[in-house]
Amino acid sequence: MIVLSSLSYYNNATMNKVKNTLFGNKPVTIDNNSLIMAIESSCDETACAIVKGGRTVLANVVASQIKIHEEFGGVIPEIAAREHLEAVNVIIEETFKQANISGNDITAFAGTVGPGLVGCLLVGLNAAKSLALAYDKPFIGINHLNAHLAANFIDTDLEPPFIALLVSGGHTQIIKVKSYSEMEIIGETIDDAVGEAYDKVARLIGLPYPGGPKLDKMAHDGNSFAFKLPEARVDGYNFSFSGLKTAVLRLVKSFDGKELPVQDICASFQECVSSTLYKKVKKAAEEFGYKQVVLAGGVAANSEIRRKIFSLQDEGYKVYAPQMKYCTDNASMVASAAFYFENTYDDIDIEVFSRI
Ligand code: KG4
Ligand code: ZN
Q1: How far is CA 88 from CA 64, 81, 178, 222, in A?
Q2: What share of the chain is helix, strand, coil (3-state, %, to 5)?
Q3: Is the beta carbon of 302 within 6 A of some atom in ligand 1?
């Protein structure tokens, strides 16, 4: 069975998405009643979800591997892939059960194609393809970063255009989302991603994996201005976080084995990162005349980054961030991306990829 082509358009009168996909010569219309089942396995979460009309989650099941990778201080790709293999069928069954829906009722199946860990991606993608073939339904391959953006469509009325700040474990980008089919990355990190910087600094000060959320928590009880850490000066809308990481390393060494003021270091680091992100995204929204600002990616769960970005509401912007459970990796965002975005890979022969 081969996907022949795909065609999408919008019904402007209602702004409802109507997507026609030809799958094995069979046209399928994706509209607001469509049920998309998606699988996500790009890193250390095995996830499956069923979403109706791109915005209403009927079931969202996530099996996290955090406990397994904790003892190694980071994700071990080979172990992660094996864990996905163990979990994937259970997760799919549980999703059908929670939504009280059978495979025959699903309009299309979606899976994450990349970027991510290849061995991990292969498990979820092949599971999604197999379901599409078994139930004779369309298959839609999804870019993980588009999925993070689409987390903002869940339970909201968000429509493009908007400016997005995407902050995850592997990426940091400012994106102009001009429409569902046109996006432009206007800035990105030239070295570490924000999530990566959080995790590395957390390790430096002795916090266990995954460090980001723990660092965020410690920062609550610290003084944000205890230490002046350097904000990198990078042209335009690009970012750099490796200098900041080195500055924290130097600060830690300066204590020469004495007890570290961990909370103050966390708060000062968090202040530095969040104000850099805030300034750049505000500048981009102003310069390009966007009225809606969207935060996305695992680090969108960060309390101070959320607070600063939401403060743009006081300046007249409409601000969106995913609900906490849809910030880090999940499959509802993948289903929503399958519903809304155009630059997906509607091809059963699509291969996984590790980097963009
Ligand atoms: O988006 P995500 O699930 O993975 C990628 O697609 O890369 O994001 C995971 C990242 C990790 O680096 C994790 O430490 C970070 O998001 N993270 C946080 C918080 N929650 C998750 N970083 C800072 N503060 C948080 N509250
Ligand atoms: Zn992610």
Answers
A1: 12, 10, 35, 40
A2: 40, 25, 35
A3: yes
Please indicate whether residue 160, judged by its CB atom, sits closer than 6 Å to ligand 1.
Answer: no
| Residue 95 and residue 59 in contact, taking contact as beta carbons nearer than 8 Å | yes
Instruction: Tell me the percentage of the chain whose pLDDT exceeds 70.
Output: 92
Bridge partners (DSSP) of residue 11 are 16
- How many CB atoms sit inside 10 A of residue 25's CB? 9
Sole residue written with tokens 């432009």: 184
Phi, psi of 10, deg, nearest 5: -115, 140
**Closest ligand 1 atom, CA of 329?**
3
Residue with tokens 């059978």: 102
Mean pLDDT of the region 309-318: 98
| Cα 54–chain centre separation | 16
Whether 115 lines ligand 1, by a CB cut-off of 6 Å, is: no
Question: Nearest residue CA, atom 24 of ligand 1?
Answer: 302
CA distance 294 to 215: 23
Which pLDDT score, from 0 to 100, does residue 165 have? 98
Reported as type and span, the H/E element at residue 125 is: helix 118-135
User: Where do the DSSP E strands lie in 12-53?
Assistant: 16-23, 26-30, 35-40, 45-52
**Per-residue tokens: 7:** 């065609």
| pLDDT band at residue 286 using 50, 70 and 90 as cut-offs | very high
Give the chain's mean pLDDT. 91
Distance CA 282, CA 305 (A): 13
Backbone phi and psi for residue 162, each to the nearest 5 degrees, phi listed first: -155, 160
Question: If you ran DSSP here, which 8-state letter would residue 188 be given?
Answer: E
Sole residue written with tokens 């600002």: 293
| Residues 121-130 pLDDT 10s | 999 999 999 9
Atom of ligand 1 nearest to the CA of 217: 26
Asked whether 328 lines ligand 1 (CB < 6 A), one says yes
- The whole-number pLDDT of residue 349 equals 83
pTM of the model: 0.93
